[in-house]
């Protein structure tokens, strides 16, 4: 479009003459809001939990749970012992620091006396570290379940470990869940949201997920805080395990109560299905079809499907065909 007369001149005048005053005025207005909007800022010498550190925690955990797959240098039979010890030490130090930071931030937020944050960080970090052998075995079962449930996975586990977003989200969740179980503030959710941002899979760290869990494709999967999932469960993309519609004050009043469904062992939930409510139980070995909407329990060994919709096919001449 042709430039309006005087447009460029006006822009130049604003940039060179008025910008410092404009910036100064905006700074004053933002500072004037501090008292009114104090809960929405973190202006304090107390450090805050770090999203960048969450990424590093997951990367270090990957290196320990799947040795050699995610390390920057080759892991060989000669150096595997040294490598494992080195990575484990790095993970412990970072985890202890971030847990202590999260606890200190919580103390600041609620005006608690904060006297042993560093010690809490070290103790809880060590507890989580001691769970890593169990997590490695559990994640191996998740990989096996993925290969058994997906013909596209191939004959080997490598593609699943390297590439599958469902496994990445599950691994991050299992780490975050260990922290959530120990009531570490902020950090578990930061871990889960990092995995969410990478995969499109949203798993609250409070959800209980059993062994041999498989999310196929995964984009758009949502698993709420109080969800309970048994063993050998398979979910497809777009599945929501959520809560029923809640009143405006429910955020505080219903915190900690069972609001999300239970899936017993061997359940399969196909793409786009929505299952809601804390009293909703999907019985063992049941199948929930694509796009099904469920707010009530179903017994074991049940299939829930939607009746096929009527299809209208219009050919190139505008005529409908049966």
Q: Which structural traits does this protein have?
A:
single chain; 322 residues; alpha/beta; serine acetyltransferase, domain 1; UDP N-Acetylglucosamine Acyltransferase, domain 1; 2 domains; five-stranded parallel sheet; 9 helices; 16 strands; 45% helix; globular
Strand line-up of the largest beta sheet: 1-4-7-10-13
Helix content: 40-55%
* Elements, N to C (H/E): HHHHHHHHEEEEEEEHEEEEEEEEE
Supply the CATH superfamily name of the largest domain: serine acetyltransferase, domain 1
Helix/strand/pairing category = alpha/beta
Examine the secondary-structure arrangement and name the CATH architecture of the largest domain.
Orthogonal Bundle
Report on the biggest sheet.
Answer: 5 strands, parallel
Rg over C-alpha atoms, rounded to the nearest angstrom = 25 Å
Straight-line distance between termini: 51 Å
Quickly count the domains.
2
| Beta strand count | 16
CATH class of the largest domain: Mainly Alpha
* Strand content range: 5-15%
How many H/I helices?
9
Regions with pLDDT < 50 over 5+ consecutive residues?
A: none
Rough shape? globular
CATH topology of the largest domain: serine acetyltransferase, domain 1
Instruction: Characterize the quaternary organization of these chains.
Output: single chain
């Amino acid at each position: 479009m042709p430039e309006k007369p005087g447009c460029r001149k006006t822009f130049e005048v604003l940039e060179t003459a008025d910008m410092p005053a404009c910036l100064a005025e905006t700074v004053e207005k933002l500072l004037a809001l501090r008292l009114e909007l104090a809960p929405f800022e973190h202006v304090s010498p107390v450090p805050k939990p770090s999203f960048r550190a969450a990424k590093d925690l997951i990367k270090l955990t990957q290196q320990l749970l799947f040795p050699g797959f995610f390390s920057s240098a080759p892991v060989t039979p000669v150096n595997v012992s040294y490598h494992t010890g080195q990575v484990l030490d790095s993970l412990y130090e970072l985890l202890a620091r971030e847990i202590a930071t999260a606890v200190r931030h919580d103390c600041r937020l609620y005006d608690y006396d904060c006297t042993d944050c560093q010690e809490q960080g070290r103790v809880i970090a060590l507890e989580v570290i001691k769970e890593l052998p169990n997590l490695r075995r559990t994640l191996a079962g998740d990989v096996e379940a993925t290969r058994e449930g997906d013909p596209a996975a191939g004959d080997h586990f490598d593609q699943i470990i390297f590439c599958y977003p469902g496994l990445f989200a599950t691994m991050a969740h299992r780490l975050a869940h260990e922290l959530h179980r120990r009531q570490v503030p902020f950090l578990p959710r930061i871990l889960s949201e990092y995995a969410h941002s990478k995969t499109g899979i949203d798993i609250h760290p409070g959800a209980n997920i059993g062994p041999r869990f498989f999310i196929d494709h995964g984009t758009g999967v949502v698993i709420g805080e109080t969800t309970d999932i048994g063993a050998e469960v398979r979910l497809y993309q777009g599945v929501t395990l959520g809560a029923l519609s809640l009143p405006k004050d429910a955020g505080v009043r219903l915190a900690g109560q069972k609001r999300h469904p239970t899936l017993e062992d061997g359940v399969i939930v196909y793409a786009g299905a929505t299952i809601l409510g804390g009293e909703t139980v999907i019985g063992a070995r049941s199948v929930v079809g694509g796009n099904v909407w469920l707010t009530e329990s179903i017994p074991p060994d049940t299939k829930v499907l939607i009746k096929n919709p009527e299809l209208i096919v219009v050919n190139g001449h505008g005529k409908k065909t049966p």
